[in-house]
Q: What sequence folds into this?
């Protein structure tokens, strides 16, 4: 009587491993999607960054920013804003940039309706 008693053997209950195939499928699909998403979003068609800003007068602030675009023949529009001390938008312009260099720096003045204390590049998009 060296055999141990087992209810699973007695009643024919087998261990189920039905979760393995769906787990492998979702792991492969999820990993593929994660790699694609990382590569797709790490190379946008337009990159922009604020370099500096300076207050030129009580009604104007000057922004210096850089733009890198993949297609140098594409026209783009960048939205520039000026904010006051309470972070309210007091000035906004759409800076249109025609075809030209793929990578460049630009300085643009933004008129404001009140004293601006900072400025930012909100977005750049294809025109």
A:
């Amino acid at each position: 009587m060296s055999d141990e008693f087992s209810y699973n053997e007695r009643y024919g209950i087998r261990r189920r491993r039905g979760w393995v195939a769906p787990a492998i499928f979702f792991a492969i699909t999820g990993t593929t999607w994660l790699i694609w998403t990382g590569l797709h979003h790490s190379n946008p068609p337009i990159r922009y960054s604020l370099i500096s800003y300076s207050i030129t007068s009580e009604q104007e602030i000057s922004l210096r920013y850089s733009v890198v675009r993949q297609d140098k023949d594409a026209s783009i529009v960048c939205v520039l804003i000026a904010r006051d001390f309470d972070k309210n938008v007091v000035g906004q312009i759409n800076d249109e940039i025609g075809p030209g260099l793929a990578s460049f720096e630009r300085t643009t003045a933004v008129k404001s309706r009140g004293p601006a204390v900072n400025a930012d590049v909100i977005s750049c998009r294809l025109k």
Observations:
- DSSP finds two helices and six strands in the chain.
- The mean pLDDT is 91.
